[in-house]
């Protein structure tokens, strides 16, 4: 009976989670196309015949001071019928056109919310491939130890994989058993009796896996990961992603950075609101304004360059797809474009591919017409479609890099202006004052979040990327069924797994999708994100439904604590480092008392040398040259059209 009740309760919980997740998805998808209630009621009142007819009679009576004649009534009646029919047609048209759009948006949102956690796990798995078997075991054990609902037996196995010590693993398993029933004194007895074993294991871990020591200390104290606190973020992961874009070097971006970007997107789509502190500073406004202008122009350039590189890699992926699908039966191997190559090389190889396609198509069509042979219409159509699509992608690249050229020139001009400004502006030491006078600091609390329309827009962009790169649930399921995965025998990635290049491209696409809505490239936005803990996602397991993942993500977003302490410390660092001002005692007390910033940390920040030379970023690489679409490419399409007509 007890088992039945537990089983029934679990089933009820699952159903509730599914309902809540479906409600979240429906709310986001309907935000864009739902007609406001005021407009709907007005439309119904207008199309209702009695309302219109009654209004017409009252108006006639008030205007002419007499009842309408029979001819007037006929006129009003016909007018009412016509307007009513028009209103019904309008409603039907809305149902036929907008309802399918809502359903499509639900599909997009559902797919994105379902696949982001899946791709996160796959990205975490990517990080284990270059490791040895022993390193891989410790890496996975560290991830397992961060799960909230880990049972004692699984905890024992994870600790053994991490430490290789059976006695220590058994100790942690016993502590977990007592933790689940709240027996803290018994946990103290165990740790006191095994303090020499604990010290021995910790000393060994300092040399092989120091990152796991804080996790084990938490477990030894009888605590488990806290859902409300969340997970610490990788420092400067957004900056590394933009740096990898700017330098055209994927090695600057790690798999951990990709994971962090996926987590950020998922938590924002699930309703996470990240606290943010901004300030108004009265005093050296010229310096603040010049620095803000410099950072703004730099951010705009990075975004433009991200779009350009994204378009180049889209064309490279398209070319690889065509090479793979159109591989000749007797061909032994094909040379695919590497997505992590420089933009210049990718543009050069893409141009060679289009040149070759155009030349082959045009030569075949001319030769066929001269020899009066019957052309292979299917082949001509296929080659013409490939060439047309490639030219279209090439034009997108050219437009993107024309914008990069403009941003490039603007950045160089702004950098030069900044250098001249700094050279003639004498910066003297000054303390930030917290008061209402002419000089001082005013701190404002804000939030980084997405509304429902923003969420729908982000999901639409990510949905297109997932579909184009065959990262949907359906595509990966087909790949899983088609191939023998051979996880033990083969070191290669299975076909249903995201590749390292595609994972990094996904991080770039997420950054581009979020940028218009939260301005991810701005320094103050990055500072706010770094200062908070990420939503805990380790309990969202592979294979869960989209509704379950959405509900769990929304619940964790609501549970997440608003902690301004990290934001306050980063704000102080920006003030001292970038704006070259000193925190007064009142400013330190204000940040400490109102936002719980650590006073020791603020005093350390205040010691930052204001005379330190400022590092102004310069461009290391010029944008690649993307020529206009060649005349030969269009001539090949014209010859193809003549041949198949």
Descriptive report:
- By secondary structure, the chain is mainly α.
- Among the domains are: 89 residues, no CATH class; 72 residues, no CATH class.
- It has 24 helices and four strands.
- The strands form two sheets. It has a two-stranded antiparallel sheet.
- Keywords: Membrane, Transmembrane, Transmembrane helix.
What's the short version?
With 645 residues, the chain is mainly alpha-helical.
Secondary structure layout:
Elements: H1 2-30, H2 37-47, H3 49-64, H4 70-126, H5 133-144, H6 152-163, H7 166-179, H8 184-193, H9 195-208, H10 213-220, H11 237-247, H12 255-269, E1 274-282, H13 285-325, H14 343-370, H15 377-424, E2 431-432, E3 440-448, H16 452-468, H17 473-482, H18 500-518, H19 523-530, H20 546-559, H21 565-578, E4 582-583, H22 585-595, H23 599-606, H24 631-644
Parallel strand pairs: 2-4
Antiparallel strand pairs: 1-3
Helix pairs in contact: 1-4, 1-16, 1-20, 2-4, 3-4, 4-12, 4-16, 4-20, 5-6, 6-7, 7-8, 11-12, 11-13, 12-18, 13-14, 13-15, 13-18, 14-15, 14-24, 15-24, 16-18, 19-21, 21-23
């Amino acid at each position: 009976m007890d088992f039945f009740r537990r089983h029934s309760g679990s089933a009820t919980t699952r159903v509730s989670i599914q309902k809540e997740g479906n409600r979240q998805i429906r709310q986001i998808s309907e935000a864009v196309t739902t007609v406001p209630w005021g407009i709907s009621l007005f439309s119904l009142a207008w199309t209702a015949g009695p309302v219109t007819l009654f209004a017409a009679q009252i108006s006639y009576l008030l205007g002419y001071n007499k009842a309408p004649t029979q001819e007037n009534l006929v006129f009003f009646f016909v007018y009412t019928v016509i307007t009513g029919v028009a209103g019904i047609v309008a409603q039907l048209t809305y149902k036929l056109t907008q309802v399918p759009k809502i359903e499509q948006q639900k599909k997009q949102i559902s797919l994105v919310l379902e696949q982001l956690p899946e791709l996160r796990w796959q990205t975490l798995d990517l990080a284990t491939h270059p490791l040895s078997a022993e390193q891989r075991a410790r890496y996975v054990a560290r991830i397992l130890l961060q799960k909230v609902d880990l049972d004692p037996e699984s905890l024992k196995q994870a600790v053994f994989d991490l430490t290789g010590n059976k006695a220590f693993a058994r100790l942690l398993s016993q502590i977990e058993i007592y933790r689940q029933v709240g027996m803290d004194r018994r946990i103290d007895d165990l740790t006191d009796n095994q303090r020499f074993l604990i010290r021995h294991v910790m000393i060994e871990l300092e040399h092989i896996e120091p990152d796991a020591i804080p996790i084990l200390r938490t477990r030894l104290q009888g605590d488990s990961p806290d859902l409300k606190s969340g997970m610490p973020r990788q420092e400067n992961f957004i900056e590394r992603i933009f740096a990898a874009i700017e330098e055209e070097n994927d090695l600057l971006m790690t798999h951990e950075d990709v994971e962090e970007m996926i987590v950020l997107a998922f938590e924002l789509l699930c309703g996470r609101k990240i606290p943010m502190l901004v300030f108004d500073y009265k005093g050296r406004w010229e310096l603040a304004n010049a620095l803000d202008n410099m950072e703004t122009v730099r951010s705009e350039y990075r975004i433009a360059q991200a779009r350009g590189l994204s378009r180049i890699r889209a064309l490279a992926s398209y070319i690889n797809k065509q090479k793979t699908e159109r591989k000749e039966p007797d061909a032994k191997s094909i040379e695919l474009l590497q997505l992590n190559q420089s933009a210049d090389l990718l543009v050069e190889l893409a141009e060679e591919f289009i040149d070759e396609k155009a030349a082959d198509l045009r030569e075949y069509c001319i030769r066929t017409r001269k020899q009066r042979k019957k052309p292979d219409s299917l082949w001509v159509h296929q080659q013409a479609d490939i060439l047309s699509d490639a030219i279209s992608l090439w034009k997108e690249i050219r437009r993107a890099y024309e914008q990069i050229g403009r941003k490039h020139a603007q950045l160089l001009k702004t950098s030069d202006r900044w250098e001249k400004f700094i050279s003639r502006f004498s910066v003297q030491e000054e303390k930030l004052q917290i008061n209402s006078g002419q000089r001082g600091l005013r701190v404002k609390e804000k939030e980084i979040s997405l509304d429902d329309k923003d969420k729908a827009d982000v999901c639409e962009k990510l949905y297109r990327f997932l579909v184009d790169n065959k990262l949907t649930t359906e595509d990966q399921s087909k790949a899983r069924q088609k191939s023998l995965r051979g996880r033990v025998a083969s070191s290669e990635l299975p076909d249903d797994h995201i590749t390292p290049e595609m994972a990094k491209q996904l991080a770039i696409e997420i950054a581009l999708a979020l940028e218009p809505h939260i301005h991810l490239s701005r320094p103050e936005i990055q500072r706010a994100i770094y200062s908070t803990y990420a939503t805990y996602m380790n309990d969202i397991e592979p294979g869960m439904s989209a509704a379950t993942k959405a509900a769990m993500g929304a619940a964790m977003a609501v549970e997440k604590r608003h902690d301004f302490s990290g934001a306050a410390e980063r704000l102080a660092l920006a003030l001292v480092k970038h704006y070259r001002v000193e925190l007064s005692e009142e400013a330190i007390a204000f940040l400490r008392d109102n936002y719980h910033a650590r006073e020791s940390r603020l005093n350390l920040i205040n010691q930052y040398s204001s005379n330190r030379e400022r590092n102004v970023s310069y461009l290391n690489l010029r944008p690649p040259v993307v020529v206009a679409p060649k005349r030969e490419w269009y001539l090949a399409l014209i010859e193809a059209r003549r041949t198949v007509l």
